[in-house]
Amino acid sequence: MFSWNGLRLAMLSVIVVATLTYWKWFPLASPFDSHELVVLTRQSPTTYYLDADGAPTGFEYDLAAEFARRQGLELKVKVSDSVTGLLTGVIEGQAHLAAAWLTVTSERSGRLRFGPSYAHERELVVCGPGVKRPGTLGDLASVRLEVVKGSSHVERLLELRQAFPDLRWVEVEATSTEELLERVASGLADCTVADASTFDVIWNFWPKLVIAMALTESRDIAWALPKNADMRLRQAVTDFFRSIRKDGWLDRLKERYFGHLNHLEEADVQGVLTRRTQLLPALKPQFQLAQGETGIDWRLLAALAYQESQWNPLATSPTGVRGVMMLTSETADRLGVANRLDPGDSILAGARYLAMLRDQLPDRIPEPDRTWMALAAYNLGMGHLEDARRLAQKLDKDPDAWRDIKDVLPLLGKSGHAASLRLGYARGGEARVLTENVRIYYDILKRFEPIHRGLGQSADG
Fold first, then answer.
1. Could you tell me which of 64, 326, 382, 439 has the fewest CB atoms within 10 Å of its CB?
2. pTM for the complete prediction?
3. How do 97-103 and 36-42 pair as beta strands?
């Protein structure tokens, strides 16, 4: 029987579907009209993640946030759960751009418009422990190779298959290569393809991973925009990257996220991972008490203590520094520490000393640079650090930027410079190594240890 109600319901359904389809494909208004910049990204060590407080952070997030700030726009971030979804989202106009550490490839350039390159990347074949490493591209056919679906790595492998038709791999739907590197490290896959920067981050958590070969030479990394992107937006992106290169902001951002990613010895990484479960639990309450008094993240204090003593409260060096924070007798006396071998007293005094050094630096030095400089001063003293800052200025470097200071520190031990310094010779190279190692240990502890809900916050801000 004919029903008018049924007809009305069917017509209403058609209208709803049509409306939803219209809005799905309706392009976003120009950010300069809506005053909102919509950015697509993905979770990975080189792009975007949430810190221990649940706040968004990451190289690409900070880069997009700075672009939005300089343009007077409100930033809205959308996180894609796959590389394929991210690229499709940009093509369909669901975002104004993708800031996701994307490699510029010929296939992608046919579908997207890329902004200026701001980094370069190599693609590596990375294998796990116990795997017979492929020595040539032809040997890749003999291992179980997993790659992220939709990634630039797939495109490269397809190119290689023309010369090596037996080449096979498994494409895994994942947000980043980090997941596959963990699978390889755990023995669930033989090898994967990873960007060098991602490998540098992950190796410090999975030190048994090994590089088998490079698949590519250096390739450009850039933001991706729709082909029909707003002309004002395209010009603004071009001007932005030109500006942040000129004023040094891009270099400072790279230093913050990637400047310390030198590789530790495998024994050092295994040591901190093992002692984290064996020795750290007994010391954790003291580190957290020190955080409450000084406002310094307990995990940073623990990282410093590991570098100094490997969390051994009875540690003693040939030069007479002692305890878990390896205090000199002079520093201990200044801070009222009667027994440097008492872990609670040593940790609190070390935290106070680091906070004091940090407070002595000029207010204009931003975080996290001032914390990294304070760590260097913890090793060689504030007077020698000031010598390094003066030398940096003399060499036309920035005395308020850690990326320049760490280059200058080794010069304190060179005869050509030491004679002109106020305090003379210093083992500045050792202070640089200490600081960079502490940064890596801090990254490891932030990955495995939760933040203490007290007064402290990370050195990253």
1. 382
2. 0.74
3. parallel
